[in-house]
TrEMBL record:
Organism: Chlorobaculum parvum
A molecular function GO annotation: magnesium chelatase activity
Membership in a protein family: Belongs to the Mg-chelatase subunit H family.
Coiled coil spans: none
Record field: catalytic activity: protoporphyrin IX + Mg(2+) + ATP + H2O = Mg-protoporphyrin IX + ADP + phosphate + 3 H(+)
Name assigned to this protein: magnesium chelatase
CobN/magnesium chelatase domain mapped to chain residues: 100-815
Taxonomic lineage of the native organism: Bacteria, Pseudomonadati, Chlorobiota, Chlorobiia, Chlorobiales
Entry keywords, A to Z: ATP-binding, Chlorophyll biosynthesis, Ligase, Nucleotide-binding, Photosynthesis
Top-level taxon of the source organism: Bacteria
InterPro entries the UniProt entry points to: BchH, CobN/Mg_chltase, Mg_chelatase_H_N
Length: 815
């Protein structure tokens, strides 16, 4: 038991029952403290294991903090051999250990003996308990093998005897619970068989749960694997119990998964849900934590739910086993296909359709980004055909090749016929589609009566297509909740053509965001009846996505089996005022100054109102009924000042490129303004120039400025300028911070407390600068993805709010 709500519920039941004997194992401290075995109780002082036990356990795993729990398991095994030596006065502790020994080997025979032992020791029942039948704590298993195998060498030797072709086949590593192997092994056997059916070698390893990463490090890093499938969920290091030392988990994860350098997949049956609950509701929150949230922090992808509980047993669904094994096969092919033979499909968007938005995405320059990717692919040996001479030429070619109005009348129009459509869709899929959209070819993109337009640009082994429009109006998110809706004929044909006719080794969605991941189906734990699974489950799927939107990226990751590749957001800069706004601002300022001297007239007021309406300023800053004109003018003037200083993205990011120096300075300045509260860099500057006594910290000053306080506006502008100059001269020009601070603040010297705050700001700013200046990870990750390698994980978030923690981009982003 690792969740507090479960622990609280259990405590309530125990309080009501007034039970006297309680054995608790392998659970969170709150549950372990419930232990009551005669005179033996687990300490409630929160100290956990005695120091001597911790030291011995750590020694057994050679000092690795991330292996501490595994060390405890090894120590317990040693302690069990010493049970006969425990003195009689510690009888209850001895019994607790003896029961744990049975519990650690949960075969039916051992569990029966465990209850007999408890009954004889604490309930005066005259029964005998058989000795423990021991099972290894971790090792290799195969349903055809006569026994468990203790290491990789013995397993590979046995596998070769079983199948001489195994040395030529690619390996898929598997991790699963030892307890399930002893009690629920049907789903394990079925998964092994499904992987073998694809011509792959399963490397199936059972573990107690806390030592999965140990098995991976000790065995899988000494062979070549094409995928690691974790069937346990939870975090990679420590499993259900997690790591005992903060930071040890991340470091060990990066070390081990980096060495394996293969896609990391968490795929399992739902351990706490039944089949009906899953297929009607999707994955419930408690289950989703172990299946999605925790594994995603480790870089897990393709979370195929294999089944759920049926008639009290874990049950697998055949088409889910096929989905997982197909993805394993496809990723394996991606890793081993030479670059010059590898086929890559890029998908871009056209939303709203027909509005000049083709090949556009939020925050990303799609044509320039794809052009750069094609250039890099060409240098890596991919067949990209005859490259257009520029991004603009590429866009022009693509626009023409995907224009239905033009292409539908051409003799060589890129379309598919009825027979092809029927061959790449199932009877059930066509039945559902025709119930919503009528018969083939539908009304979206027909070419005559027996063909349907797809469109797209092929350059060698690269296909670039535009995602078909939805055929419905409004927000695609509502599709998620519309169970009766379906993709239309062209939509499913587009994705099936990519996977089955074109034969793509990889599918790449470029930018935020498409509609396919929002197609009808379960929110979490998609089944074969869910449209995202039908459309995206056949090809390794990669999604280039802005780093500042991890929540929607998770939708694509969980419903569309996508590996995310985060990209930086466009450079931030001050909006400024454009066109007639600067002149209008001066007009307002002139009016306010003359108003103080009572030198205003009605004609001027009328002219100002008309100008405000013509500039559409009254939409965002309307005059309040009964508001004196002078007050409205002051409010309108403040609105223009805020508009002028507002941060905006004034360009689109080009994948893999570094932003301009000036925008880097602006981004770091804004980030440091919200760090440290009263010890933020601007707050320290205010203290140095003698403004903190009047205004407090920078946050308080900014609040007053937003309310239109003229003095506050001027002070804020001065502090902002000093902050920006300080960052530019120190972080970017490496000038002495003390000297720069003194010059910019009129000779002020920072005291010890101020100096500490400044140094902290400089360290954070330097870290952010490093991340901003190196976007090479984006292109490197893209190439690694197409090699079928592991992409390190990293959090998404806002650059100004979250800073360097979301950098470098190019990582497999999680929320």
């Amino acid at each position: 038991i690792q969740f507090k709500n479960q622990a609280d519920w259990l405590q309530e039941q125990l309080d009501q029952s007034k039970v006297q004997t309680i054995f608790a194992y392998e659970s969170m401290p709150e549950v372990m403290h419930m232990t009551r075995v005669g005179n033996y109780v687990v300490s409630e002082d929160g100290s956990g294991m005695p120091d001597i036990v911790k030291k011995v356990a750590k020694m057994l795993v050679k000092g690795r903090d991330e292996d501490a729990l595994y060390g405890y398991m090894k120590l317990l095994k040693i302690m069990r051999t010493m049970l006969p030596l425990i003195p009689k006065k510690a009888k209850d502790f001895k019994n607790w250990m003896q029961v744990y020994t049975y519990w650690m080997h949960p075969t039916a025979e051992n569990l029966a003996s465990m209850f007999n032992y408890i009954m004889s020791e604490y309930f005066d029942v005259n029964v005998k308990a058989a000795k423990v039948q021991e099972v290894p704590t971790m090792g290799f298993y195969h349903p055809d093998a006569p026994d468990y195998m203790k290491d990789l060498h013995h397993y590979e030797k046995w596998l070769y005897k079983k199948n001489k072709a195994s040395k030529e086949q690619n390996n898929i590593a598997m991790l699963f619970f030892r307890k399930h192997l002893l009690q629920e092994k049907e789903y394990i056997d079925n998964t092994i068989r499904a992987i073998e059916a694809k011509g792959l070698n399963p490397l199936p390893v059972f573990v107690m749960g806390v030592e999965g990463h140990v098995a991976a490090r000790e065995w899988f890093t000494h062979t070549k694997i094409d995928m690691l499938i974790n069937m346990m969920g939870f975090g990679f290091v420590g499993g259900p119990a997690g790591a005992t030392t903060p930071g040890a988990s991340a470091a060990a994860r990066e070390e081990i998964l980096g060495k394996l350098n293969a896609p990391y997949v968490v795929s399992q049956p739902l351990f706490i849900q039944d089949i009906n609950s899953w297929k009607t509701q999707g994955v419930v929150p408690l289950q989703s934590a172990m299946t999605y949230a925790l594994p995603e922090m480790d870089g897990a992808v393709c979370p195929v739910v294999l089944g759920a509980i049926k008639d009290g047993r874990l049950h697998t669904v055949p088409d889910r086993l096929d989905r997982l094994s197909t993805l394993a096969k496809k990723f394996s092919e991606l890793r081993h296909t030479p670059n010059h033979d590898k086929k890559v499909a890029f998908v871009v968007y056209d939303y709203p359709p027909g509005m000049g938005r083709k090949a556009s995405a939020a925050l990303l320059d799609v044509p320039k980004s794809i052009y750069k990717m094609l250039q890099r692919l060409q240098s890596e040996g991919y067949n990209v055909g005859e490259m257009p001479e520029s991004p603009e030429a590429l866009l022009a070619m693509f626009d023409k090749a995907t224009d239905y109005e033009i292409q539908a009348h051409e003799p060589d129009c890129f379309a598919i016929d009825r027979a092809t459509f029927n061959s790449i869709t199932t009877d059930r899929e066509r039945e559902r589609i025709e119930a919503r959209w009528s018969g083939f070819p539908g009304e979206i993109a027909p070419v005559g009566v027996d063909k349907m337009f797809l469109g797209g640009l092929t350059l060698g082994n690269v296909f670039i297509g535009v995602q078909p429009r939805l055929g419905i109006q409004g927000d695609p998110m509502r599709l998620l909740f519309d169970k009766e809706n379906t993709p239309h004929h062209q939509y499913i044909a587009f994705y099936r053509w990519i996977s089955r006719e074109f034969g793509a080794h990889a599918l790449v969605h470029v930018g935020m965001h498409g509609t396919v991941e929002w197609m009808p189906g379960l929110q979490l734990g998609v089944t074969g009846d869910c449209w995202p699974d039908a459309l995206l489950g056949e090809v390794p799927h990669f999604y280039i996505y802005p780093v500042n939107n991890p929540s929607e990226a998770n939708i694509a990751k969980r419903r569309g089996y996508a590996t995310m590749i985060s990209h930086n957001i466009p450079p931030l800069s001050r909006a400024g005022l454009y066109k007639e706004l600067p002149t209008f601002k001066d007009m307002l300022n002139d009016y306010r100054e003359r108003g103080l001297e009572k030198m205003v007239d009605v004609e001027t007021e009328t002219a100002i109102l008309e100008k405000a309406e013509n500039l559409n300023l009254t939409d965002d800053c309307p005059r309040i009924e009964g508001e004196p004109f002078s007050e409205y003018i002051s409010r309108l003037y403040i609105y223009l000042l805020e508009l002028e200083t507002k941060l905006i993205s004034n360009a689109l990011h080009v994948f893999g490129e570094t932003p301009e120096l000036e925008t880097q300075v602006t981004t770091i300045s804004e980030y440091l303004k919200v760090r440290g509260n009263e010890r933020s860099l601007p707050s320290v500057i205010m203290q140095a120039i003698g403004e903190s006594e009047t205004w407090g910290d920078y946050a308080a000053l900014a609040t007053r400025a937003r309310k239109g306080d003229q003095k506050a506006l001027k002070v804020r502008e001065k502090v902002d300028d000093i902050t920006k100059d300080f960052i530019e001269q120190t972080i970017f020009s490496n000038s002495n911070a003390g000297n720069v601070f003194s010059v910019l603040t009129g000779g002020a010297r920072a005291n010890e407390e101020m100096a500490a705050a400044i140094n902290s700001a400089l360290q954070e700013g330097a870290a952010l600068k490093q991340g901003l200046q190196d976007n090479s990870h984006e292109m490197q990750s893209f190439l690694r993805a197409l090699n079928g390698e592991y992409l390190p994980s990293g959090p998404g978030g806002d650059l100004v709010r979250d800073g360097a923690s979301v950098l470098p981009t190019g990582r497999n982003m999680h929320a």
